[in-house]
Amino acid sequence: MLAALVAICMWVFFQTLDPRIPKWQLDRSLIGTNPGLGFRPMPMNNEESTLIWFQGSNKTNYQIWVDHILQFLDSDKIAKGNGQIKTCSHSDPPKADEVCEVDVRDWGDCNKDRHFNYHMNAPCIFLKLNKIYGWTPEYYDDPNNLPKDMPKKLKEHIRNITSIERRTVWITCEGENPADIEYLGPITYYPSQGFPGYYYPYLNREGYLSPLVAVKFERPVPGIVINVECRAWARNIRYSRSERMGSVHFELLID
Ligand SMILES: *[C@@H]1O[C@H](CO)[C@@H](O)[C@H](O)[C@H]1NC(C)=O
Ligand SMILES: *[C@@H]1O[C@H](CO)[C@@H](O)[C@H](O)[C@H]1NC(C)=O
């Protein structure tokens, strides 16, 4: 009895000592927390606004958005520590002492040298899932059992790829109404259409980088406010458009 008690005390003691493990992890209820989706750039001057409005022909104008993205990518950068950065893949996930790299070269046109494509009126928006300690996604990885409201194109994509690649938190961006869908036009996702499963669970390892998805709007119609919703897809991400759960909303206006 006494030995067991001592063991438990020691365990609790060491748990609280490890600075990387948040104390509230012991509160099971929080493990079920919904990870929020975020986007950049965000409108800066007005907290309430979700309008991304720029002139691709006016460098002074679009540079504000470009700088905002750069700031975000910078602040998100690796605090290089003892963790080993590794180029991960579904077949080569990180080991206990490794973290996966996030490579800006995987983002196509969505890079600094190309002004994140704002000058081409085909802007890139970055999506990120909030970090929740210990959270592990439950994937939509069974092509025969996908949610009814999942966009057809994503379903097709999931059917097209190998089962190991299906271990992904999927991302879709769409116009909110039929007119928005038409105005928004085609979309490309870099490096792929979601957050690969090998980044999870998040365990606050030294040097951990959040995976990002760069969403490139190839040719949105200019001069019109387009309502866009981007959504993250996993069984344990709750979704509600009205409460902005598991999704983000913004408007795009290109002058
Ligand atoms: C370019 O953008 C800046 C900043 O938004 C603005 O002050 C300026 O008037 C714009 N120039 C033109 C030619 O529209
Ligand atoms: C799925 O694969 C087919 C055949 O290779 C291809 O034509 C189609 O574009 C692919 N669809 C998606 C969404 O990747």
Automatic annotation (TrEMBL):
Record's signal peptide: 1-19
Localisation: Cell membrane
Function noted in UniProt: This is the non-catalytic component of the active enzyme, which catalyzes the hydrolysis of ATP coupled with the exchange of Na(+) and K(+) ions across the plasma membrane. The beta subunit regulates, through assembly of alpha/beta heterodimers, the number of sodium pumps transported to the plasma membrane.
Record flagged with keyword Ion transport: yes
Family as reported in the entry's similarity comment: Belongs to the X(+)/potassium ATPases subunit beta family.
Membrane-spanning parts: none
Tagged with keyword Transmembrane: yes
Membrane topology type: Single-pass type II membrane protein
Record PANTHER family: SODIUM/POTASSIUM-DEPENDENT ATPASE BETA SUBUNIT, SODIUM_POTASSIUM-TRANSPORTING ATPASE SUBUNIT BETA-2
Gene Ontology molecular functions: ATPase activator activity
Primary localization: membrane
Record's GO cellular component terms: sodium:potassium-exchanging ATPase complex
Organism: Callosobruchus maculatus
GO biological process annotation, one example: intracellular sodium ion homeostasis
Protein name: Sodium/potassium-transporting ATPase subunit beta-2
Keyword set, alphabetical order: Cell membrane, Disulfide bond, Glycoprotein, Ion transport, Membrane, Potassium, Potassium transport, Signal, Signal-anchor, Sodium, Sodium transport, Sodium/potassium transport, Transmembrane, Transmembrane helix, Transport
